[in-house]
Amino acid sequence: MEPKIFISYSWKSSEFQKEIVSWADRLLHDGIDVIIDVYDLKEGDDKYVFMEQMVNDDSVTHVLVICDSSYTKKANKRESGVGTESQIISKNVYEKVKQSKFIPIITEYDKDGKPYIPTFMESRIWIDFSGIERVNQNWEQLVRLIYNKPIMIKPEKGKRPQYIDQTEKKVTSSSYSKFLTLKSSIENQRFGIEDYRSDFFDECYLAIDSLRIRDKKVEVISGEQILNNLIQLREIRNNLINWLMFEGKYTDPELFPDLVMNLLEKLIELRSRPEELNSWNKTMLETHIVFVYELFIYIIAGLMKLKKYSLIHEILTTHYLQPASERRGGDDEFVDFHIFQGWSDSLQILAPEGQKLHSAVGEYIKQHCDRDDFKLQNLIESDLVIYLMSLIRGHGMWYPQMSFYQPFHGKIDFFIRCIQKKYFKNLLIITGLTDVKELRERVKKTIEDIGNTRRFGSPFGGSPESLFNLERLNTLD
What we know:
Elements: E1 4-8, H1 14-29, E2 33-35, H2 37-40, H3 47-56, E3 62-67, H4 69-77, H5 80-95, E4 102-106, E5 127-128, H6 132-147, H7 175-187, H8 193-209, H9 223-232, H10 234-250, H11 256-270, H12 286-305, H13 309-315, E6 320-321, E7 334-335, H14 360-367, H15 376-392, H16 413-417, H17 421-431, H18 436-449, H19 464-467
Parallel strand pairs: 1-2, 1-3, 3-4, 4-5
Antiparallel strand pairs: 6-7
């Protein structure tokens, strides 16, 4: 039904009436049919019958009740035409199911700052038109209400969360609610954004840290326990990814890189040995090594989605400070992005009976790639971009475990696009190189130095050169 409104008001001066008429004209310009006495009540018409017809007319989708001291006084005392009209309106307000038909428009406040509004409408949500600034500020709200096109739309009901059926203890805290608070503060430009952000990260770090092994009596952590720990940390993984994708779009581009780099250094600490643990075995650290590797892959994939290519370059060329517990003396204070590499022999429990997985970590990540905004293809691309940088930097130590799940044809969308020159420019930003010739030479030299594909395996026999479309890069306009 096309919107059609009736405007109910109390005449108190010609100036006030002109203002009401200006609103009617503005609504007409916005495509809304308006019924108002100035235009529609003719000489000889019965004004009381006219008002009753308009209020009860089913084709009238909304009635704007212009509330000021005059209208409120007459309505409450049932005086004159307004009194008669208000009786009709109040009867509809109390009896009709469609409550949204009658919209109070506040134009005046009393000396105590309370809006003038008839008693029968006091409990209704109103719109403030108490001055020209308020009119302009709230005009869109009124028009959207009339058209039934609100800014905030209730999302469709989603699927039942998998964690509802999980019986194991959850270690995730209130990090999701902290994220929503931070998100709201950024969207509404509230004070205290830094505090809300710190609260969110603190909740995430505490949840991750709570699963670090500190008990010296623990000897070996089973694969089942590591898998269970990782599943418990999945919500934290998702909250941090949600944060990355939100702040990557809305936060100051000069501030965002520092936030990401701070997160990465904290992840290095969380994947390392706690300082109070003097003796340990590798299984005691596997939960966090796998968690950080998975999150790192997602972070690079997210930044590729956000087209933050310069930040990816910074991440893959920066030296990160080692946690104190990992320093052995000498020149080991800093590490590069290879520190985020993850491994786990314990997760071979995911292999089919009698078989061994090429990458147990890759299998875990594949099985839990369950977000709507990230597909497995995104993670494969991310992993291979990191591997390419490893080759360019001369050692090829990054093992691209997600490559075992690449499409059968062995072609990756990102590197297919980079055949075109306009997309290849993005790859140059990531690598920090100046041209395709230098990229090819560096990759080939590193492959030759490490014994071709000695550090690289693929279930389909793909070589790095073919995966990266090395010879075809930057060849198509």
